[in-house]
Design brief:
Layout: H1 7-19, H2 24-36, E1 42-44, E2 51-53
Antiparallel strand pairs: 1-2
């Protein structure tokens, strides 16, 4: 399902999910997809031009 999201929308989804304090499971799914796409753990936010950081989940 997340394959349909562009990289930009995926990052926006992550940022919004963190802001809204959504389920850790959902944030984990988004984070996993970001890792699979090899997006850096410091990614430029597409709207604000600032860097956001996400934390890789432990395995």
């Amino acid at each position: 399902m997340m394959k349909a999201l562009t990289n930009s929308l995926l990052v926006k989804t992550y940022v919004k999910a963190k802001q809204m304090n959504l389920s850790p499971d959902f944030i984990g799914l988004v984070t996993s997809e970001m890792e699979e796409r090899k997006l850096s753990n410091t990614t430029r936010h597409p709207d604000k031009g600032s860097n956001i950081k996400y934390t890789k989940k432990s395995r």
